[in-house]
Amino acid sequence: MIRKFDFLVIGSGVAGMSYALKVADAGKGKVAIVCKTTLEEANTAKAQGGIASVTNLEVDNFEKHIKDTMIAGDYISDPAAVEQVVKNAPQGIRDLVKWGVNFDKNEKGDFDLHREGGHSEFRILHHADDTGFEIQRGLMEAVRRHPNIIILENHFAVEIITQHHLGIEVTRRTPDIECYGAYVLDPDTQKIDTFLSKVTLMATGGTGAVYATTTNPNIATGDGIAMVYRAKGTVEGMEFVQFHPTALFHPGETHPAYLITEAMRGYGGILRLPNGEEFMQKYDKRLSLAPRDIVARAIDKEMKIHGLDHVCLDVTHKNAEETKHHFPNIYAKCLSIGIDITKQYIPVVPCAHYMCGGIKVDLNACSSIHRLYAVGECSCTGLHGGNRLASNSLIEAVVYADAAAAHSLSVIDQYTFNERIPEWNDEGTMSNEEKVLIAQDMKEVGQIMSNYVGIVRSDLRLRRAWTRLDLIYEETEELFKRVKATKDICELRNMINVGYLITRQAIERKESRGLHYTTDYPKHAYDHK
Q1: Which listed residue, 114, 173, 368, 454, has the most CB atoms within 10 A of its CB?
Q2: Packing angle between helix 14-25 and helix 131-145, nearest 10 degrees?
Q3: Active-site entry in 123, 137, 292, 371
């Protein structure tokens, strides 16, 4: 079946929905949001801490936010991208409020601002400790109300459509690759439909699920990045995987692991060994409020030195009622596994959290493929450089969604639907036996990535990961050609592609920088001391 939409949005977090609302308001045609599960299940909804924006002009300013971002990014952030996000952040906040998102306010009626690691001022807007969930709720209600937006839940984008599908050879040196839409798997018919579009936006989120333990939901398999890479688009910065220093250590929960927000350290939480000993003074003068890469490496090192499977976060010295008020969800979650955080330490461990790299885009969110935009965690705007500053990602998604909307609205009249695109050829069937192979390979990819391409790397580990992934890649591609495409095998292909890109780009970076730390090129890891 062929379906036509003026704007095709693949992904339904803050990035995809912000863009959809902006272009739908312009009334220039039909907008479709393709969502591989339900609207509710996006990485956005898991973000606890908040969203960064300069709002208290008495003490804060754009220059301070820009400087904090550059420092956290280890000075490989793109200054133009940093300036664009920081200076447009206040308007992004106004847009979210207009769409129905609520942020906590103090008794004076001003935003109640938190401070997080790496920030020099209090500039984190939040909604209790479930800010992402509140942003997702507000935007979901807005898109569901909008007459120009069609929401297609449980639909899975398999590939983006380019000249390649017309039989034209496309390589990484082809200068004018164009996107004409996507092939999308319909859950009801189990058939792959042809979605033609004038412009396409990739907003598929992150890659955390390629690791054995992650704060991301299972759906974060890097689909958009993999699709664009296979279509010969430019992908960069993949070596910079952010490991959140403090996920709740609870061995039964790995996908997703429960996040203990950065704001808890901003609130005064202290990292300790299980015996109560502090350790961050050995690594950084900012102690528990150092940027995430430094804190995650410090925890990783302490766990290895002492043979521990976790360290602890301590808020027992804080007022119990205040702790419950600020962190109601964390309090309830820990209580459910027998930990009263007002009296006991919280066991924490680093795990895969955020991808700083992705589909390379310019200031208008245009990828290297014409008519294809990328926004949010699947994109590489240059904002994060070597390491993302806490709470910069949600505002980046809103600001770049606005830039993508403005640009695509200015050019969409130049485009038409490409009617010559052939329908998907899906001969072949799949047996249960092969589903077992897919499940096993997914588990193996997670173990390879966590063991060899984790917080601390080496050339030997990276080469081993490359060899193992290459073998699984060959087997999976052979299987994919023989069988009917399903969500499972498509996700596995994407996970392998993403794992390969992280590993290859890590091998290519012959230095320790930001989140990429390798024992073979050890610029001393704690160089902010």
Answers
A1: 114
A2: 30
A3: 292
Helical spans, DSSP H, in 374-517: 392-411, 432-452, 459-482, 487-508
Cα(186)–Cα(175) distance, integer angstroms: 32
Q: Where do runs of H (alpha helix) occur along 290-431?
A: 292-306, 320-326, 328-336, 392-411
Q: What is the pLDDT of residues 55-83, one digit of tens each?
A: 999 999 999 999 999 999 999 999 999 99
Helix axes 487-508, 459-482, angle to 10 degrees: 150
Taking CA atoms, 238 is separated from 229, 341, 457, 526, in Å, by: 12, 36, 14, 22
The β-bridge partners of 351 are 244
Q: Is 145 considered catalytic here?
A: no
Residue 237, by phi and psi: left (phi above 0), alpha (psi -120 to 50) or beta?
left
Query: Residue 504, Cα to own-chain centre: how many angstroms?
Result: 19
Query: How many CA within 13 A on the CB side of residue 208?
Result: 26
User: How far apart are alpha carbons 274 and 253 in whole angstroms?
Assistant: 20
pLDDT category of residue 434 using cuts at 50, 70 and 90: confident
CA 351 to chain centroid, in Å, comes to: 13
Q: How far apart are CA 224 and CA 202, in angstroms?
A: 6
Going 48 to 259 to 314 to 118, the CA torsion angle's sign is: negative
CA atoms within 13 A on the CB side of 337: 17
Give the distance, in angstroms, between the CA of residue 207 and the centroid of all CA atoms in the same chain: 6
Exposure string of 168-183, with b = 16+ CB inside 10 Å and e = fewer, is eebeeebeebebbbbb
Measured between alpha carbons, how far is 63 from 66 in angstroms, rounded to an integer? 5
Tokens of 506: 């890590």
pTM beyond 0.85: the answer is: yes
| pLDDT at residue number 308 | 92
